[in-house]
Amino acid sequence: MDLLIQGVDIFDPVADRLLKKQDIKILDGIIREVGEDLQEEGLPTCQAPGSYVFPGLVDVHVHFRDPGQTHKEDLMSGSQAALAGGFSQVICMANTAPAIDSPQRVEAFYKKAQASPIDLHTVAGLTKNLKGQELTDLEGLAQAGAVGFSDDGFPLADPSLLYEAMVRARALDLPISLHEEDPAFIGKPGVNAGPVAQDLNHPGASSLAEEVLIARDGAMALDTGCKLDIQHLSTRLGAQLVKFYRDQGAQIVAEVTPHHFSLTEESLLEWGSLAKVNPPIRREEDRQALVQGLKDGSLSLIASDHAPHTLDEKAYPLTHAPSGMVGLETALALGHTLLVLGGHLSMMDLVKKMSLNPARFYKLDLPSLEPGQRANLCLFDPKKTWTIGPETFKGKSQNSPFMGYKVTGQVQGVFTKNHWHEINL
Ligand code: DOR
Description:
The chain is 31% helix and 21% strand. By secondary structure, the chain is of the alpha/beta class.
């Protein structure tokens, strides 16, 4: 596929450079030329003066529910949600039904994923059936293409099992990603233990649930040298612990989700179960600590934790409704609006946290935006103000507490796998 994109600012975190007012010529899926006033007769042309181009984004934490709950999402609908949000690579979680916990299931995933318009990757379960009892065949799973290991959705209670997993994952040079919520400190999940939970008469999930596990597992990551990804970080002390272990030399990163950097527990009062998520959205001081960590660089990944559920299930009473919210379609616009326009991050920093840093940590290929490279890019209008609504969601589910939220910055297209997907052009 050929394409000429004209008049854009190029944010290239791989080459670490920003080029203003450039044209990009793509021939047969390869960037051939970058420069000013490029012309070529007969090329499909996209004039986008003032727009930004950066690498197709990378989300290390999505739930595509395939197999098992494909009425909520499947690999193809999830890929459409990803494209709508500017992503060209995602890592799927293993909490499917059945769980992705054997080399055969990893192989089946990649076979199906070939038909996707984007690059789909998967982690594999760390323990069999994500039950926390017995480790999976980490070596066989790596061989089959798993890019890491996770029981996401469930914490790993047994430290000796996790220690053994870390030693083996270290030998494979693959990350372990952990859902850090100790059930000992959870009355009922999805709502922060505090005044809002009390108002709602919901025995909530305490910050301690996260903090104690990060403290424990960071120490083991330091000892083993294993790459550790703390999933969907939600607490101030958790953020400080991640920074502490990084400063000690541990290979530890943490994901910050758009809902955790933009909302507080009060959103439960407005949105009810649409704002119910594990770990829960917490206090303003926690939110600010996450923003601060993104700003000082100690928190280096933004991930959506795209978790589709039906609106029927979300309409159950708060204690029974499932936890989670969709996020792929809105993550970039929320990051741009709240973090970049909010004065906390530069655009280059946001792009790094949504492409280069996650790709590096999980060893995914992320080409630069230079001539000779495979074209893998997102076109983004930084000035467009729009309102998140039901039509925003291109996956199968719409469970979002951001409905009606006004944001600035919109994806216009994604070029990946030798194909140009026009999105809001
Ligand atoms: O709220 C959540 N929902 N947190 C998770 O970790 C899992 C996810 C899901 O699968 O729905």
